[in-house]
Amino acid sequence: MKKQTFIFIFCLFTIITKSQTASVEESTSGIQTGFLGIWLHNERRLSNQFVLRGELGFDSSISGGTFYSRSIFLMTPVLTAEPRWYYNLNKRKAKSKSIEGNSGNFLSLKTSYHPDWFVISNEENIQVVSDISFIPTWGIKRNIGTHFTYETGIGFGYRYYFAKQSGFIANEGEIAINLHLRVGYRF
To answer: E-strand spans in 7-130?
Structure first.
């Protein structure tokens, strides 16, 4: 009877250790670029499936119209804090797919702040209005080899402009869209 109990406990222990949950990395950093910008980022683990992603970078825009004689290109600094939930890590691991570098599908709340510190532009005397946005986002992040990554996401949320600070009568809010496609390098 002792021998059978020992074998049962050994088998149970083996099954339990085999079914450990997948986890995001403790910390991962890199640089990404997309159609309109460049960003440095770091993801810190909060739990097995949750990370807090911080970004510092430049968002860009191209505009033109009746007020300007040519197209205007500008880059403004952006600070982003984004809690992410990588919800399919166990499924990816069960299918023997890589979860290295936090490869997986995610849901997040992208919170970005564009301060009016400075503007890099091809036109003089351009000023931006500071804003903050809160955009729930769904996305995917995958690795290409050891260091290269790509990421895409889509989300709809809210953006609030601090227009009074720039001399306007009232602050304004609007619906905001986060549609991104980025490639990057992981350090």
So the answer is: 27-34, 37-45, 50-63, 72-86, 104-114, 120-121
